[in-house]
Amino acid sequence: MSKQRVLSGVQPTGNLHLGNYLGAIRNWVEIQKKYDNFFCVVDLHAITVPHNPTTLAQDTYNIAALYLACGINLEYSTIFVQSHLSAHSELTWLLNCITPLNWLERMIQFKEKAIKQGENVSVGLLDYPVLMAADILLYDADLVPVGEDQKQHLELTRDIAVRLNDQFATPEQPVLKLPQALIRKEGARVMSITDGTRKMSKSDPSDLSRINLLDSPELIEKKIKRCKTDPIKGLSFDDPERPECHNLLNLYTILSEKSKAEVAQECADMGWGQFKPLLTETIITALKPIQERYHAIMDDKVYLNRVLKEGAAKAGTVADQTLVRVKNALGYLPNL
Ligand code: AMP
Ligand code: TRP
Known about the structure:
Layout: E1 5-10, H1 18-31, E2 36-41, H2 56-70, E3 77-81, H3 86-96, H4 101-105, H5 108-117, H6 123-137, E4 143-145, H7 151-168, E5 180-182, H8 217-226, H9 243-256, H10 260-267, H11 272-298, H12 301-330
Parallel strand pairs: 1-2, 2-3, 4-5
Adenosine monophosphate binds at residues 10-11, 19-20, 23-24, 146-147, 149-150, 188-190, 199-200, 202.
């Protein structure tokens, strides 16, 4: 039996942070041996909000190098850049024409980002989830490992696939495969370290709110020193009155690879003065090998370019076949 297929992606906007790592990439690494994996740097998504053309290419390298540095293994996984394959844009157009406008207007992430942008909302921002659906459906992905915030987009992807199948195929021979979100409980929602009620995000204006994968040990120390805590002695999970405490314990649990019960016991009588240095050390130790590998890869652009070129060729073979299948189903005249 052939392996099930996995697809996921991250946008090359800003630095990757612990939320991206624990919510997404770390899980990709852990499951990759079991599946046939495609990991994409979704640079077409990166221009749905105003972007800087002088840093886009570098940011794209940065994410691809971080995939490798975090442990994505080319023996099991294909890494590629979304804009290198025109099939993503092309399928987006075809899907656009069968997606009701009000499905997109309902998307939480669109509403949140649109509010932030005021007058400047582009059609691309509204269309973002259809492009994401195209990314996934092109590869006949069975599973899509993402953080909790992407759940609604995955449901939309399934709805679009069902609609296309209903309108243009038979139940016996569907054109598109229905994917499933794979959301791991721990790490699915890493919160800001300056406000435990908001998710850690690349777009938070304050860099102090997040720990980036490439932050230096000094900066990590400074951020943890300044992070938000509370005046209560003794640390505990799951107290709705203490979202920051829960989040920081959670980070410590995952990165130290201890169990929740172990950490609950270890930290039950601790004060913040004792816990913060421990957390700082744990984060620095967990990120150090990733940072070392990242710098080595970024110093070897010949290698990185080769990875992306081979990745695009491999991904293109799969994507092009799906695109032809969809175009045939929609009744297009083939280019013979
Ligand atoms: P993005 O930064 O929006 O490109 O997200 C890339 C991946 O990281 C997606 O799978 C997100 O669900 C995940 N992610 C982003 N922020 C967080 C967070 N604060 N906690 C957990 N996962 C996250
Ligand atoms: N929208 C996703 C995010 O912000 C990124 C993304 C784009 C993605 N295309 C995808 C994730 C396909 C999984 C699969 O996190």
